[in-house]
Amino acid sequence: MSIGRSDLREIFATRLREELRAGDDDSPAVSETRRAYRQAACLLTRFDPLLLRLPGEGHPKGGAVLELLDDCVAVGGAGRATWTLRSEVREEALRSLAGPHAALRALADNAALFGGEPGPERACLAYLSGHPPRPEGRSADELTDILQAVLWLSCVPGVSGLPATEELQRELERARLFEPLERLVGGPFQGRDRELARLREYAGLSEGRAPPPGPAPPLVVHGPGGIGKSTLLAAFLLGSVRRPEQGFPFAYVDFERPTLSVHEPATLIGEAARQLGVQYPAYHAELDVLAQECQRAARLEREDEERVAQLHRLATTRATVGRGSSREMQALATERETDLFRRVADVLLRAVSAAGRADTPFVLVLDSFEAAQYRGSPALGRLWAMFLAFRNVYPRLRVLVSGRAPVGHPAQPMASLDLELGELDREAAVALLEACGVADPGVARALAGRVGGHPLSLRLAARAAALAGKDPGRTGALIDDLPERRDEFFHQVDQMLVQGILYDRILHHITDERVRRLAHPGLVLRIITPEIIKDVLAAPCGLRVGTPEEARALFDELAGLDLVEPYRPGTVRHRKDVRAIMLRLTGGDRGALTREVERRAVQYYAAREGVEARAEEIYHRLRLEEDPRAVEERWLPGVERFLAGAEREMGPRAAALLTARLGTGAQERVMAGADQEDWERMAAREVEDLLAQGLADAALTRLAERRPWTPCSALHALLAETLDRLGRLEEARRVVAAATGPAERAGCAHRHLELLLLSARLAREAGDLAGAERDLRAAEDLAVRAGLELEAVGALLARARLLPRADAAGPPGGDAGTRLVRRLRLLPGSVLADQPVLVRAVASQMHTRYPGVLDEALDVVGLPAGEEAPRVLGAAICRAVSREPALLGPVMEVLRQEAAPGRRPGTAPPSGITGILRLAHAHGSLDALARRLLEVPDDSGEIAAGVAEAMGLGSGGDMPGGAAEHSAARPRAEGNGPS
Length: 979
What we know:
By secondary structure, this protein is mostly helical. The chain has a 5-stranded parallel beta sheet with strand order 4-5-6-3-7, sandwiched between helices. It has a two-stranded antiparallel sheet with strand order 1-2. A two-stranded antiparallel ribbon has the order 8-9. Strand 8 and strand 9 (571-574) form a beta hairpin. Helix 31 (696-702) packs antiparallel against helix 32.
C-alpha cells in the first residue's frame, strides 16, 4: 500500500524507536529491499522518496522514505521532499547493478521523476539505449550533464562505448570559454556590418587584404550606455574564432567579474593564460602554472598595497617613506606583471607555431574597462607596459577595449584608436524589432521611425508593442505617444524621452493598480523591502498601507515583476538597465513625487543604525543635491563599499564628493563640477598616482590648476614633492615654508605635521641639519600636544632615520630613540595591531640599541606577509653561519624542530634553509621560528640583522635615512616616466 505524506511523521517516529532499540550496532547489513531502492535511485540526480519505484512495481509504494533515510540528504526548497543519494552510497549502488540492462530498467521505471527536464538522467538513457549524445556543439550545461552521466555509467559493470572523461572535460572547458560571449549575443543581433568590418580590418582578418605588419595600438570601442559595445565585441569574436579559416587565439576579460580587477593587472594575465590553455590543450599545464603564478602575484600586490596604504594613513610616515614606497610598489608590480605577460606570449608563440599559424593575431578583449580610464591611472600605465612587453615577443597583439572614449596616459608610447558606436541604421532597427517579436512590418517601420536605432530603446519598444497586443488602436496610440525624430542636437534628449515613454507603457500593463503606483517612484530606491514600502513609498504614492501584512502582500506582487531582481531574502532591487533609464527622467510632477520619496528615504535611514543604512542615507541626500560639506559630516568608515559606483547616478557636484571620498579615478566632467575641496582631493589622488609612476612632469601640469588652494589641502605638500622630484629643491622648500603657517592657523594638525616632516626631509637633502632638527622637534611637540600618539611615534621614527647621528649623540635616556621605543611600548596592543607597518619599522630601525624590540614586534604584529621574508631571513642565516661555522648545529636544530610539525606525512623534507623557512611561513609558524632564532647566541649579529631586515620589508626600513631616493646621491631628476 502506498504511503501518503500525512503518514511521514509516524514513519519517522517508528524509525526513531527502532534506532534507539538497535543499541550500539552502527553497521547493520543492508537488506535486499534497501539495496533495491538504492539501485533504483542511483542514476537520479534527485528524487521524491514517495514516488521512487522498484523494478516491476506498478505504482510507487513510498518504501524509500523508510529504507533510504540514512542514505540521502535533502535538497531543494522548503515543502519539497526531494532527496539525493550520498556519493559513497551512489557509487556502491552503481557498482552493484547487474549490468547495462538493469541500469536502463531502473531509469525507465522512474522516468516520471525527471520527465522532460534536462539533466544527467537523459544522457544516461541515451547511452544505455544505444543513441549516445554527441558532445560537439553542446552548451556548457548540457556537457556538464553528459560528463556526469559518463562518470556514473563508468561505475556500472558491462557498460562500454563511453567517451573519455578527459575529452569531455576539454569540450566543457571550451563551451565555458564561449558562454559569456553567447550570453551577450543571446538575443537577436542585427546590423553593425561596418563596425564588424572595422574590427576584422584591425585584427588583420579582412578577406583579400594582407594583415598590417607589426604592432598596433589598442582600439577603444565607446558609445552611450546600452548602445551594444560588449555585444558587438562578442559577436565579432564568435563570428571569427568559430570559422576554421579565420580562427585565432583570443581572451575575453570582463572586469565586472568579481575575480578580476582592472586595478590588478595580474588577474588579467592569469585569466588570459587560463583561456589560452583551453584553446591549446597541449600547453594547458604550462599556462596553468602561469595562471597560478598570477594569482600569487595579485595576492602579493594586495599585501604591498595595504602596507603602502598604512604608511599613507599617518602624516608623519606619508611625508618621509610613504610616497617613496608607493613608487617602489608600482615599479615592482610593473616588473612582475610584464615578466608574467612576456612568458605568456612566449608560450602562445610556441603554441601557434606548432599549429602552423605563426602569423595569426592574438586578440585581447577588455570589457567594462571604465574604472581604469582616467588621467594618470596607474592601472593604465602598467597595462601599457604589459602590452609593450607582450608585443616584443608576439608582435600581432591586438587589444580591443569596451569603455569610455580613449583617455591618454602620460607614459603611453602611441595614441589609441577609437570606434564610436552610434545608432543602428533604419534597416537594422526594423530587423531588430521584428526579431524581438514585432510581427507587423508596418508597425516595425513606424516604431523605428519614432524610436530611432538605439538597441535598448528598440527592445523596450518591442516589449511595449507586445503588451499592446494585436489591437491596432492601442498600437497606434503607442506610436503616436512617441515624439518625432528631430535633428542631431536634440538626439540624446530624444532618446531619454523615448525610453521613458516606452517604460511608462510597460508599467501601464501591470494589472494591480497599487503595485503600478509603486513601481516608478520606487526606482529611486536602491533596495525595496516590505518595511520600505510601508514607511517610505506608500504615502507619496497615495496608498494607505497600515499593517506589515499589507506591505508584505504588495512586496510579493512587486517582487513578481520582471522589472526587479532578488537582492537578498526579503529584499529586491530594480534591474540596472531599467533603473539607469528612469533615473534620468525626474522632471515635472513625477520629479516632485520622486524627491518626496527620497526625502522620506533619508528620514527612514537616518533613524537606523549600521553602515549600510548610513550609506543609503548619504546616497539619497546627495541625490537631493544637499550641500556636499553637510553630507560629508554623516560619513562613517565602512560606507564606501555600499556606495561604489553610485557616482554615476549623481550630478557632477555630488559625484565629485563620492569620487573624492572613494578614491576612484575622476572624469573631467566630474572634476569640472566639483567644489574646491572635492576637486583638491581628486587632484591629490591623481598627483599621488602620477608620482608613484615617476611622472613628475604630468603631476606638475595638474598642480597648475584651480589655485589658490585651501590651507588644509594635500596639494601644497604634493607640489613640494613634485618639485623635489624634478630637481628643484629650493623651490620645494619655499612651497613648504609658505604652506606651513596657513595650515597651522587653520587648525589642520595632520596637514601641519606632514608639512613639518616634509620640510625636515628637504632640509636634510639640502644639508641643513639644524633646520631638519628644528622641524622634527616641532613635529614631535605638535603630535604630543594634539594627543596624536601614533603620529608622535611616526615623528620620532622619522627623526631616528633622518638624523641618526644627532640622535645617537643625545643625552642618555633623553634621545629620540629612547622616547620612540618608550612611546611605542606605552601604546595598547590593539592600537599597535592596527598599524603593523609602523611597529615593524620602529623595530627594524631600533633593534641594535634595543634588542628586545624585535621580540615584542614579533609578538604583536609578526613578520610581514609575502614571500620575501623567508628569503631575507634565509640569506642572513647563511651569512651568520659563514662567519661563525659553529652556529650551524644550533640553527639547524631550531629549523628541524620547526619544520617537522608542518610537513605533511609522506612528503619529502624541504631542501635548504630557505626551503624550511618557506614551509614555516606557509604554515604560519615563521614568527615563532624567528623568535627562537633570536635566542641562538650569534656574536656576528647577522641573525638579528636578518630578522630586522625581514621585519622592515615594505616599511622603508631598507632605505638609509628613510629617504634614499631623495638623498644627495639620488639618480637624475624625474620627468615623464621611467627611462
